[in-house]
Amino acid sequence: MSSTLLLIQLLNGIQLGVLLFLIAAGLTLVFGVMGFINLAHGVQYMIGAYLTVWFYGMTGHFGAALLLALLAALALALFLEFAVFRHLYDRDHLDQVLATFGVILFLNQAVKVIWGPTPLVISPPEFLAGTFRLTENLNYSIWRIAIIMIGFTVAGLLWFLVTKTRIGMLVRAGATNAGMVGALGVNIRRLFMIVFGFGAMLAGFAGSIAAPIYSVEPGMGDGLLITAFVVIVIGGIGSIRGTFIAALLVGLVDTLGRSTITDILKLFLEPSAANQIGPALASMAIYILMAAVLFFRPEGLFPAQGRRA
């Protein structure tokens, strides 16, 4: 692999890791604080992308579309929390899985009815469109670089919010012992609602900024949800720092694995065998990584305080 291609794959891996972090951050907070398994979290990513395309068609301005999409995604998340999810908090995990899977099916069909099954496209803001020269032989998308910068900024703000503010203190305390926090006079239901809505809005935000580079289509968040679960298992449930590091690690392993494993195998195997084994092994790379982390550190790389095994 040439150095130019390697640099492109590194940047693509970081960009994927940033999107995974935005999805997984909300998921790890919901799971860590509430103990709630929300399979429908990936649907918020899809909804964010569709709403951005829809509002962009109405306003013709990407910034306005992004803001309106975030508000609408938050409103939808709070409605689902009120109408469906809060009734499942005290139920067992099987009930949560079945109910949230039903929400996935319903919303995937709903976007087909509203926007149709054909993939939709949207352009990034004009001043962030196009490419710029990284090296003499490499031009790279400005919008992808913007996504990386946005992701790092959100990660820093989220870390500050969780570790340095009162609401963050309550979130961390709720993740450790929700019953004790409730006994001290904190409205646990309201805390759960805030955490759920904020987490869903982060996933919707990921869908909004991903819309210009990926096709917007029904079910687009389902595959990323599985990868997001891998991220929070590797990073440690309830840990923002662990989620961020694990997301970048998974993004890099997945991207570099798909582009390099076959070439590496050709050093040891016949080309035909390498071409058969390489793609299968590349698709398994992040799960092999997860298995290795679980073997050596079952609690994850950076478990949240109070959750260390």
Please supply descriptive tags for the structure shown above:
309 residues, mainly alpha, 73% helix, globular, two-stranded antiparallel ribbon
Provide structural commentary.
The chain has 309 residues and is mostly helical. It has a domain at 7-216. Helix content is 73%, strand content 3%. A two-stranded antiparallel sheet has the order 1-2. Helix 2 runs parallel beside helix 4 and helix 2 packs across helix 7 (188-210). The protein starts with a helix and ends in a 13-residue tail after the last helix. The relative contact order is 0.19. The mean pLDDT is 85.
Order of helices and strands: HHHHEEHHHHHH
Counting H and I runs of at least 4 residues, what is the number of helices? Answer: 10
Structural class: mainly alpha
Shape: globular
Strand arrangement in the largest pleated sheet = 1-2
**Contiguous runs where pLDDT drops below 50 for at least 5 residues:** none
Please count the beta strands (DSSP E, at least 2 residues each): 2
Rounded to an integer in angstroms, the radius of gyration calculated over CA atoms is 20 Å
Mean pLDDT, to the nearest integer, reads 85
Proportion of residues in β-strands: under 5%
Helix residue percentage: over 70%
Largest sheet entry? 2 strands, antiparallel
N- and C-termini, Cα separation: 41 Å
Quick summary:
This protein is mostly helical. Helices cover about 75% and strands about 5% of the residues.
